[in-house]
Amino acid sequence: xxxxxxxxxxxxxxxxxxxxxxxxxxxxxxxxxxxxxxxxxxxxxxxxxxxxxxxxxxxxxxxxxxxxxxxxxxxxxxxxxxxxxxxxxxxxxxxxxxxxxxxxxxxxxxxxxxxxxxxxxxxxxxxxxxxxxxxxxxxxxxxxxxxxxxxxxxxxxxxxxxxxxxxxxxxxxxxxxxxxxxxxxxxxxxxxxxxxxxxxxxxxxxxxxxxxxxxxxxxxxxxxxxxxxxxxxxxxxxxxxxxxxxxxxxxxxxxxxxxxxxxxxxxxxxxxxxxxxxxxxxxxxxxxxxxxxxxxxxxxxxxxxxxxxxxxxxxxxxxxxxxxxxxxxxxxxxxxxxxxxxxxxxxxxxxxxxxxxxxxxxxxxxxxxxxxxxxxxxxxxxxxxxxxxxxxxxxxxxxxxxxxxxxxxxxxxxxxxxxxxxxxxxxxxxxxxxxxxxxxxxxxxxxxxxxxxxxxxxxxxxxxxxxxxxxxxxxxxxxxxxxxxxxxxxxxxxxxxxxxxxxxxxxxxxxxxxxxxxxxxxxxxxxxxxxxxxxxxxxxxxxxxxxxxxxxxxxxxxxxxxxxxxxxxxxxxxxxxxxxxxxxxxxxxxxxxxxxxxxxxxxxxxxxxxxxxxx
Length: 615
Fold this sequence. Notes:
- The chain is of the alpha+beta class and 615 residues long.
- The chain folds into 5 domains: 4-189, P-loop containing nucleotide triphosphate hydrolases (Rossmann fold); 202-286, Translation factors (Elongation Factor Tu (Ef-tu), domain 3, Beta Barrel); 305-375, Elongation Factor G (Translational Gtpase), domain 3 (Alpha-Beta Plaits, 2-Layer Sandwich); 391-487, Alpha-Beta Plaits, CATH 3.30.70; 491-609, Elongation factor 4, C-terminal domain (Alpha-Beta Plaits, 2-Layer Sandwich), CATH 3.30.70.
- The strands form 5 sheets. Strands 10-9-14-7-8-13-11-12 form an 8-stranded antiparallel beta sheet.
- Strand 19 (382-386) and strand 20 (391-394) form a beta hairpin.
- Helix 12 runs antiparallel to helix 14 (595-602).
- The longest helix has 21 residues, at 568-588.
């Protein structure tokens, strides 16, 4: 192990801060593994694939969810350098993680699969890096694959970035080919960090995690001055002051150091247990003679999708609140607020950046906190204007106003789809069926096309990606970004059991798709709700108008079993008596929906539960 990485206050001109950005599955984590091995911070005994993916869920799914940083020693000629590498996620739902990683860097390796070429998320991450004026190093990965076509994709990449095809580096992260040369290029091309060594300390918090033994662990990038152990620090947005118990670096495991200087990336431990006191994007400074001007933080992410999370066992509500607070420290894009449902009890209305974000969050809560949760059907945020001019923001169908609605505005997104040109017709047909508006189309090469559509967010958050993949045989890639809102003809569909609205099953849908939702939900509930002693009508309604109905037939006792022959009037009398009893039951009876029926009806995991597109 090199002792170089443990020295204190490395000169800024010998530091290089960079991250790896790419589309999903283009080899970011594998390239990070090779860099860990070649720089000597990881020996053969402790090596494992996807080393920086620390969570079980990341390793099971083979995707990166959390950006991870690591400090690497690297020698070029006679000069030792320190490289701070941040491995980032590739999925559109975790773009916020990428934007935070870019704020801690001066350079970015743009990685492209030499067998697949540029994908939608490649472009999105490239634009994020260019917005921050980072030095971008274009790299083609997987050149050892039989299907690789490096010359074609190097020309494509050079055309987009504005460089020569010869300047695009070619590596194989799997075999290690070209990785040493790439590290030399990082040292040559990425500029060293700029900052004032003698100024009051200022460090940007770009991530935090909660450790049950040590409290909050805060990851920082020092911009000015230096931060040392036993120093008293202040969080500039909250004004909270703490004593630093430990300052250190990640190489590749946490190691205490004598301090962090200009441009260095590391971690702080203050022993604080309150997760709200370490906000991502906040500026850390010293309590005495500290800085007065905070660093520019991050734009807070706006949730795109809302869903209710409820514990199956109501007594787990306090545990769910604590688990969400700890998870929010590690995932700044997660928002939540308490809500109650007459059907599901106490829970939280949570905001997510997309369906994968929802799925991962729910999975992490169940694993890390040992909770059993129900997630309600996801929906987006609507702005409703009533006839009297009042305005209401609706994040939950139960919040839909009762007055006469004048206009409803729904969020829209700009989508970028990159696919082989033979699938243009199928993609356009899919987007038109989802109320899309064509924004433009460009050919990246003779065989690959970029299509831009403006679509309602509600139409793409469920099964749009699945439908796109199936129509293009898996070759299309999708990226989207928010683009404001538009007026739409939306209605609230209520589900009534025995004439009473069940708020958990209500949904907001486009008027053309409302009938399909109503018939599907009533049919599903008919199968899930057990038969009662009386007939139960299940209805779907828009306002006071019923649009779909199913009946659950009553359980009838065989009252004629004891009759053996004799006068028919006796049998009729018994049947009439039973009929009257059922009628009376129906007027006073209540339908208890079992918890399993809620779980099955509101499950977002099954393809059959997803709203179908209008044709």
